[in-house]
Amino acid sequence: MNDESWINMALTAARPQAVGALLRYFRDLDLAEEAFQDACLRALRSWPKNGPPRDPAAWLILVGRNAALDGVRRNRRLEPLSSEEAISDTDDVEAPLAERLDDADYRDDVLRLLFVCCHPDLPHTQQIALALRIVSGLSVEQIARAFLVSDTAMEQRITRAKARIAKARLPFETPGPAERSERLAAVASMTYLIFNEGYSAGLDSARARFCDEAIRLARMLLRMFQTDPEIMGLTALMLLQHARSRARLDKAGEFILLDEQDRSLWDQRQIAEGLALINKAVRHRQSGPYQIQAAIAALHARAAHPNDTDWKQIEALYAAFDRMHPSPVVKLNRAVAVSKVSGAAAALEMIEPLASDLASYFYYHGVKGALLSQLNRKNEARIAFNQAIALAKSPAEATHIRRQLDNLERESGA
Amino acid sequence: MRYTILCYGNEDAVGSWSKEQEAEVMAGLEEVGMRLTKAGKLGMSLRLLPTTSATTLRKTHNPPLVIDGPFAETKEQLLGLYIIDVNDLEDALDLARQLAVANPHGAYEIRPVLAYNPDRRPDRTS
Fold first, then answer.
1. Which of A37, A175, A257, A358 could join A179 in a cystine, given CB atoms 3.0 to 4.6 angstroms apart?
2. Does residue A414 share a domain with residue A390?
3. E strands within A54-197?
4. For residue A97, which of A63, A69, A70 has the smallest C-alpha distance?
């Protein structure tokens, strides 16, 4: 790895902390971003020469702040501040700054930066686009490509979103514990949105990288909130799902069912990290939706073969999840687990009351069709599968159902 | 003389490596590692999961306190370690420099080993 790519990575890693601190300082998102850009340009000039500083974020904050103030002063024909050479990476210059910006400040800075992107007036896609631009530092072109819109359209979207945020009052006061945990919950769910945007992208690598980005953000959140079991759960959940990324799509980009995946392609390193985190979270005895979903993913990850899956435990976890957040979709998932433990008839009985709630839900008809065909009720199965195909949102979903329909016909013919 | 090479680095930066960058660094380290193993200098090595997966048992309390996270909050984190068998410090430094070519970032702390207890469980090779 050459110096430049290393520096770019260090800049990416320091970005949330640095932009967050500069936002607190300037109370203006555009100015904070400009100051950070300025600091990055100086870093690219100075770091190869002087070596990278021990605390890149502190360096970038100091240099970015001075550069922006420098600009203001120059306009007023005042004395310029020292250049970045004068405040190189020696520890004695950095230490007092690093002390002033202690971890608690950093934590609230980063949280605030992420939180302003979750403004409730913004639709989810705009929240995601904004977070990827401001927090992750992806370029407008990268985000535009991922969302399949033109650069100009994405630029406009981001500008509009920023304007909306600027109009709302930015939360600059130090949050109390209750507020902090509310912000953290909002930021966690946005992080999961980013992940899902990538997860549903199939082979589209422009969007698939969102998964890595979301995991990076979650690890960062966890480093700041080390004792929060839900952040452990969120990080574990994404790691365990992402561990299957090489196995869950075929060459044509079609989804491969969990049962049919080549489990040797699962990423054991991500699984190990996910399992370690869920293990830590459980000790807190403070269950939550991310932890439960992560625990379910962990049970799948632990099974070397589909037949080894602990469906009984999965069923119990879905039941707990449904008690916490009652939802027809969770009940549907629970029914799938029930079908493995107690058979298709019991599962079918469970999903029948969901018919009206999930009438337009692809998976409902897919699951119903599969259960009916297991019970050899072929005509009804055919109807359910056809309904599913009509509701499929992607060719991969339709193909998956069509394959089951073909199996049904083949069995009928035999 | 046995030394450990304790590998420190910024885990946020390491976490920002792309798959390609990660593969490049690991392949480089593997190559140096194989060379040093053949020369009889490199023993076991290990790489650690991020400090977010760590748990600390504080023994100053009675009963000891279980805390989420690493023992020390530092700018650079312990990422892994090597055990090496060399003649002297010069030799150890030379070896560390070779590893540093493959992974030039962060720092290596070179510490002499006082006592070395190999894995004594039956049917274990390392």
1. A175
2. yes
3. none
4. A63
Q: What CATH number has the domain spanning B2-112?
A: 3.30.70.1060
CB of A275 less than 8 A from some CB of B: no
Alpha-carbon gap: B55 to the closest alpha carbon of chain A (Å): 8
Q: Do residues A153 and A112 both lie within one domain? A: yes
pLDDT per residue over A113-126, tens digit each? 999 898 888 888 88
Judge whether A227 is closer than 8 Å to chain B, CB to CB: yes
Is the pTM higher than 0.80? The answer reads yes
A99 touches chain B (CB under 8 A): no
* Residue of B68, B77, B103 to mutate for A, most A C-beta atoms under 10 A: B68
Where do the structural domains in chain B lie, given as residue ranges? 2-112
Distance separating alpha carbons of residues B114 and B1, to the nearest angstrom: 10
Distances (CA, A) of A325 to A48, A289, A319, A329, B24: 52, 8, 10, 10, 44
DSSP string, A160-202: HHHHHHHHSPP--SPPPHHHHHHHHHHHHHHHHHHHHHHHTTT
Task: Provide the token pair at A302.
Answer: 């632990």
Stretch 298-317 of chain A: residues touching chain B, C-beta under 8 Å: none
> What ipTM was estimated for this complex?
0.89
> Does A198 contact chain B (CB < 8 Å)?
no
In chain A, which residue's Cα lies nearest the Cα of B71?
A226
A277 touches chain B (CB under 8 A): yes
Which member of B17, B52, B67 has the closest CB to residue A219? B52
Query: pLDDT digits over A218-239, tens only?
Result: 999 999 999 999 999 999 999 9
Question: Per-residue pLDDT tens for A277-328?
Answer: 999 999 999 999 999 999 999 999 999 999 999 999 999 999 999 999 999 9
Structural domain boundaries, residue A95? 3-101
